[in-house]
TrEMBL record:
Coiled coil: none annotated. This is MFS transporter. It comes from the Bacteria. Keywords: Membrane, Transmembrane, Transmembrane helix. PROSITE patterns: MFS (PS50850).
Length: 414
């Protein structure tokens, strides 16, 4: 066990130690790449010769390939993180997505683009879960919420940085920048140490990283499912409402075209403040659940405003994107709870697979949205999918355990 610090100065020193900073910078690069595609989707597809009528379906296809890679990568990196250690994931994942990012800058055809988005997804899948797992295990429980808030906030800044880099440079150069940043961070990670909690468990004869343990016990499976469902509203907003904001702007009858990159940047600017606020509020109220419930309700409110209010100007549309981002700022809490709900021998598996299953849920959500779009129109279809994700999140949160004061030095048993 890590000794509890005795003063505020000691708390700050613990909070700003190297594993926390490296995990935060890694997530910055991770989110840069993840949302760079949303920013450069239209210009990159046009450069590859895709017609205007195919920008949405081909964009969804590429997004789905990326998310499929994240689903598979989430399982691989999660299991590896519990079997071999958190650091093995932090090294392997950043190398793969950095090289894939550079490769994206060289694509000349749609199949190449799809293949490299899949590989990038494989690499991106490991970063957040391994980073949050390491941070929750190296920090004392009274400040680990602050640590994961730092990680999540830096990640959101990466998404904002993607907009500004893409605005300054051609889309291929933007991919090269992301790859280069990742390779630079790889060098910094050489000095990071492994979690002591994990090292103790590794020396014991304990089953680690066994994915089937999440499914062969009913109570454990329901906890796992709850973790996934509470995150669905975040990726409904990001993966559908924001990524395809130009199409929503058209459906609303806006006279000026919506710039997807700007919508992404403003949404994630809002999420920076939301992540900071949700993290601080959870520490103040000493509850993850109460704060998360408030943010899910706030997210639903602004989804309804986005889809139902008569947004007649581009400035009002972008303003709503900012508030959607603020309401989506419970990503740090969502991943922290996933890490805190499970023992050390399954923690990396859960913390890595859960956010990637939420991201991967974009595949059925976009499929449902596209099907409904043909039946009831763009706005009504999105409304139906949004209400569904919010309902599932509220039900899951109601049955979820409060984890704020939970001691993480324990293991799951068969």
């Amino acid at each position: 066990m890590i000794e509890q610090p005795k003063s505020q100065e000691s708390l700050r020193k613990q909070l700003l130690q190297l594993p926390v900073l490296v995990a935060a910078l890694g997530y910055l690069v991770d989110m840069y790449d993840l949302f760079l595609f949303s920013v450069v989707r239209v210009p990159s597809l046009k450069a590859l010769g895709v017609g205007a009528d195919q920008l949405l379906p081909d964009g969804i296809m590429l997004l789905n390939w990326q998310m499929a890679g994240m689903l598979i990568g989430g399982i691989f990196w999660g299991v590896l993180g519990d079997k071999r250690g958190r650091l093995s994931v932090l090294f392997g994942s950043i190398l793969i997505y950095s090289l894939a990012n550079i490769g994206n800058g060289f694509v000349t055809s749609l199949p190449q683009y799809a293949a490299l988005r899949f590989v990038a997804g494989l690499g991106l899948a490991g970063e957040l879960g391994a980073g949050v797992t390491l941070v929750t295990e190296v920090l004392p429980k009274q400040i680990r919420g602050y640590g994961t808030t730092i990680v999540a906030t830096m990640g959101v800044l990466g998404a904002i940085m993607a907009y500004f880099v893409a605005d300054l440079f051609e889309w291929r150069i933007s991919y090269f920048v992301g790859g280069g940043l990742g390779l630079m961070l790889l060098v910094l990670r050489m000095n990071v140490f492994e979690s002591k909690i994990f090292e103790v468990v590794k020396e014991r004869q304990v089953k680690r990283g066994d994915l089937m343990m999440l499914f062969n016990d009913r109570k454990r499976f329901l906890k796992y499912l709850q973790c996934i469902l509470v995150g669905l509203p975040i990726w409904f907003v990001v993966g559908i409402l924001v990524t395809f904001s130009p199409e929503f702007g058209q459906a609303m009858g806006l006279t000026e075209p919506v710039v997807a990159g700007k919508a992404v940047m403003l949404t994630f600017t809002g999420q920076v403040f939301g992540d900071i606020a949700s993290g601080l509020l959870s520490q103040y109220f000493k509850s993850r659940k109460k704060v998360m419930g408030s943010f899910i309700a706030l997210s639903l409110l602004f989804v309804l405003i986005y889809l139902l209010a008569p947004l007649k100007s581009l400035s009002m549309f972008y303003l709503v994107c900012i508030f959607l981002g603020i309401a989506n700022g419970y990503w740090a809490l969502f991943v922290t709870i996933a890490a805190e709900l499970f023992g050390t021998n399954l923690r990396a598996t859960v913390a890595t697979t859960v956010p990637n299953f939420v991201r991967g849920a974009v595949i059925p959500l976009t499929s449902l949205f596209v099907y409904g779009k043909g039946q009831v129109g763009t706005l009504n279809s999105a409304l139906g999918v949004g209400l569904l994700t919010a309902a599932l999140a509220f039900i899951a949160l109601y049955f979820m355990e409060e984890t704020f004061r939970k001691d993480l030095n324990y293991v799951e048993t068969d």
